[in-house]
Amino acid sequence: MAVMRLGYVHARVTDLSDARSHYVDTLGLYPVQEEPGRLLLKGWDEWDHHSVVLDEGGVGLGRLGYKVEDPSDLDGFEKRAQQFGCRVERMSKGENPEVSDGIRIFTPSEHVLELYHDMTLVGTEVGTVNPEVFPRHLVGVGVPNIDHALITAEDVNLMDRFFAEVLDFYTTERVATSLDDDAEYIGTWMSAGQKVHDIAVIKGPQGKLHHFAFELGDWADVLHAGDLFAMDDVSVDVGPTHHGITRGKTIYFFDPSGNRNEVFAGGYRSYPDRPCVTWTPDQLAKGIFYVGRELNERFTSVLT
Amino acid sequence: MAVMRLGYVHARVTDLSDARSHYVDTLGLYPVQEEPGRLLLKGWDEWDHHSVVLDEGGVGLGRLGYKVEDPSDLDGFEKRAQQFGCRVERMSKGENPEVSDGIRIFTPSEHVLELYHDMTLVGTEVGTVNPEVFPRHLVGVGVPNIDHALITAEDVNLMDRFFAEVLDFYTTERVATSLDDDAEYIGTWMSAGQKVHDIAVIKGPQGKLHHFAFELGDWADVLHAGDLFAMDDVSVDVGPTHHGITRGKTIYFFDPSGNRNEVFAGGYRSYPDRPCVTWTPDQLAKGIFYVGRELNERFTSVLT
Amino acid sequence: MAVMRLGYVHARVTDLSDARSHYVDTLGLYPVQEEPGRLLLKGWDEWDHHSVVLDEGGVGLGRLGYKVEDPSDLDGFEKRAQQFGCRVERMSKGENPEVSDGIRIFTPSEHVLELYHDMTLVGTEVGTVNPEVFPRHLVGVGVPNIDHALITAEDVNLMDRFFAEVLDFYTTERVATSLDDDAEYIGTWMSAGQKVHDIAVIKGPQGKLHHFAFELGDWADVLHAGDLFAMDDVSVDVGPTHHGITRGKTIYFFDPSGNRNEVFAGGYRSYPDRPCVTWTPDQLAKGIFYVGRELNERFTSVLT
Amino acid sequence: MAVMRLGYVHARVTDLSDARSHYVDTLGLYPVQEEPGRLLLKGWDEWDHHSVVLDEGGVGLGRLGYKVEDPSDLDGFEKRAQQFGCRVERMSKGENPEVSDGIRIFTPSEHVLELYHDMTLVGTEVGTVNPEVFPRHLVGVGVPNIDHALITAEDVNLMDRFFAEVLDFYTTERVATSLDDDAEYIGTWMSAGQKVHDIAVIKGPQGKLHHFAFELGDWADVLHAGDLFAMDDVSVDVGPTHHGITRGKTIYFFDPSGNRNEVFAGGYRSYPDRPCVTWTPDQLAKGIFYVGRELNERFTSVLT
């Protein structure tokens, strides 16, 4: 019984054509399905049908889909979520296009989390026989896959408990008011497997999205992305820089609707037995942006 | 019930003082314990007591230790290994310094595999409170941790089955004589979690080591390592180059006793549901060394 | 008759011991000579005696020394500077330690520029016989050499003419109020040879220093520097990022006295026949910081 | 009176269509002019009309064109070449398409060297007003410009003298039989300005080409090029690796006709007063390929 990874992000965008230009032409996601008001996308190194669903109308996060290892895992997670006090719904196969049946959890932070066990397999863009190391003709940044999301919640301690107790995530890093056991968490970074984070939660309003992230290979790819953002007039929030927390290399930027995206490279490999890291509030800026050790107002206040 | 990772490698070296110079001064491992004829080492980003044990006398692999998630996992793995037809021994706490009790499996390939659930926790060199992204005064290459091992076996298909059926590893990539189900495997790359490989097995004599590997951050670190190898007169086998198989960036080199090491950076994150890649024998050289697409005699024949 | 390069920078620092910690321990310059109130430094890949002179007392730029190819060049440059209307002094051998005789030009921008033809040769830290590609035991950032300086002047057009007409520099890039011939320059980047700039001048008060820069190998080195700045509590102004102007990769930071330094990597190779680039004021922020396209107040106002 | 740089390389190729695929589709040079049996190309960051001319028929080097600073330089170089004992011809404007008048020197090594002072200016692919840092839609490797050539000669000392005495090049590095003044040179690396080499000559048959090189930005670009070589079936000779001599990062590869090319990144900036480096024959392999310190037979024997 295990959650494997963040499998899909549903985001709302004010204009689908502008969003297409951003996610397809600049980021290089592959459009896999289009219908009026909706665009489904995948990265070149993803094998499942899609990882991003853009819905026209409004802005912000629709829901996050996490893939579990086995169909039989759903019952257990459903039970635990209910015991934790969450409302849970069953979802049917096809309710999300190309996605199996699953469950929908309404989290204590007022986000919608879907768990599913299967999605139509379409294969990566390099195939399974003598594959090239990347597609010969990548578009733009050429992001290979989505990586994680960062959401806000009024009670971060509660969300840390939720992901740990309900979904077996473990905490890799934390910002806490103190090193004591009863400290209040300002942020928590949590892993479902060996990623340095599959989800992160920081203190803020309920139900909001800070950003969702795409993985890149390394620091050189991060600058290449940044250069393309300049060429394509993508609004950049912060970066390129280095995180203290997670050690990832990063640029934060906005899609044309104002949803924050991140390109994220590196970060260490984590394991459940790795000791959890704690950052104290006075070192928060260094934890977030290691090199410059400054937070800008926009980064801490703009949410969708 | 899960294997987490390769936790330690025991290697034999002809001269411990030469080996110390290689593993400590050049690679930058931290010596954590020394006794006559034996040296225990760890990388700066490892939190368990040690990951490399060097024993003076001879050359080659002593044994590989894999850490499991829970003490209770041992019984299950023991049973499965026995059912697979392997000889299995119980090992006691302290039989390996600072290592818990566990089991010792004599694999069909005549290697010794130890499973254990605990090792004395010493913490990484950057600590758990507001940690720096790496230690301020790294030595030499400054390898953060071990990564994987590649061993040889007469029957690779059998070893693929062994790791899959006994230890729940899954195959990420394979070199096979054909794409058919009954193909003979020339090599198999297998993951216990999300690493692109925790173990690899290629066709060759029983009980031998091709190499064990240290992880590096990225392609820039690989060249930096190579430059230090030149300065320190480390014998380099191949690289820097790019693997087709695993997509890792790599240099192969030898310790002073002739054991092959690798520095390995990158490689994609794998999951059990990622489609397995197959390489055909005509593309083997490209699979191993993507850029040059040539194998040298030494790389395919020198084993310890 | 040619200026070769920026050979030395004299900077004033409020506290020599703090400055030593910054320039030696963090940046990795080699102290080559110390006397009360003064410290002379060189980078590992510089062969002349020193490139940075720190004088205790105050803050800001003392003078810039440019090395010319031939002793006989001095007469010509002296004549031209006088014709341009500058006060020029002869300086004697030894007036600057280890430096030959030369001339001292008081520029229209009220900076002091020294031209000299020789400095005591001490050799690089890797020597001239079978040299390693860098010293085996670099300290901190390990800057190989100084690169350029950026100064401010009330009349940038005049300074552009000064460097062109007196010293045979040519302009590689400019920020100008328009593309017309009579445009007012807001900044000018000028080369004495093939560097993308040996000097830059931006509009501002007379006689001030914006920054002087050290060269690094590439973008990976820039982040490594930034990480060390975080560890050593170096105050960072902006970066890491990419310049549009010059295409250099950069971090701006301050020494403990508040003098701005830069680490600078890349930038194209220029030639006198390369067409000069012009940036228009509306694209200034993109020209300076290509990825983020934002200027902070500090960057444009803090001078020493 | 100064040579600025290698401005063009004329190479013979057995099949122009195959060559086009290599130089245009893989390397990303821009075709600027085509006529039956001939193709003219330029890199995206070159402003003169072309830098590579491919002539169908045979294989090997046609001639090397070096651009001088001023038309009046030609007379002086002509005189010096004649005094050195070389045959020199005047060439007329248009004899080479889009190239000014100049002189043609038949070197002691039986190569043809052309000096010219002007070529039709076409501008770089990013223009001169608010330019992007590279073209938004680069093709393949996207080489920005040519860099240098390495030729063979029976008498390297003589060629070192030729370039120094006739063309004012200076030697940055040398492989010599000893450190004595009367040593025989096995190779010489020479600069006309601040490049670490504008020409190199190694001992071998008269009139032959070892390789000509394209510049890349950094080590990340070198691997990216190597990956594309694998995808496009470009025959790779050696690399990616690091040179000891010049410190450049490199891959050697062949065009479809068998002419060796190089992608070259980095290398230090040189100046006439930088002390010349000498490599001794026992360290030759380390000088050429720093990391692996091995020369393959092909690298030392295949010439065109």
Portion in beta strands of chain A: 35-45%
First-residue to last-residue Cα separation of chain A: 32 Å
Q: From the structure provided, what is the oligomeric state, counting identical versus distinct chains?
A: homotetramer
Q: Into which percent range does the helicity of residues of chain A fall?
A: 10-25%
By helix and strand content of chain A, what is the structural category? alpha/beta
CATH-wise, what's the superfamily of the largest domain in chain A? 2,3-Dihydroxybiphenyl 1,2-Dioxygenase, domain 1
* Computed Rg of chain A: 18 Å
Order of helices and strands of chain A: EHEEEEHEEEEHEEEEHEEEEHH
Number of strands of chain A: 17
> Could you please say which CATH topology of the largest domain in chain A applies here?
2,3-Dihydroxybiphenyl 1,2-Dioxygenase, domain 1
Estimate the global geometry of chain A from the Cα principal axes. Answer: globular
* Mean pLDDT value of chain A: 97
Low-confidence stretches of chain A: none
Question: How would you characterize this protein structure?
Answer:
- 4 copies of one chain form a homotetramer.
- In chain A, 57% of the residues are buried.
- The first copy, chain A, has a 9-stranded mixed β-sheet with strand order 14-15-16-13-9-12-11-10-17.
- The two termini of chain A are 32 Å apart.
- Chain A is globular and about 50 Å long.
- Chain A has 2 domains: 3-116, 2,3-Dihydroxybiphenyl 1,2-Dioxygenase, domain 1, CATH 3.10.180; 145-301, 2,3-Dihydroxybiphenyl 1,2-Dioxygenase, domain 1, CATH 3.10.180.
- Chain A is 19% helix and 37% strand.
- The first copy, chain A, has helices spanning 16-26, 73-83, 156-167, 219-231, 284-288, 297-301; strands at 3-13, 30-35, 38-42, 52-56, 60-68, 87-91, 102-106, 112-116, 145-153, 170-176, 185-191, 199-203, 208-216, 235-242, 248-254, 260-266, 277-279.
- With 304 residues, chain A is of the alpha/beta class.
- Chains in contact: A-B, A-C, A-D, B-C, B-D, C-D.
- Chains A, B, C, D: One of its GO terms (molecular function) is catechol 2,3-dioxygenase activity.
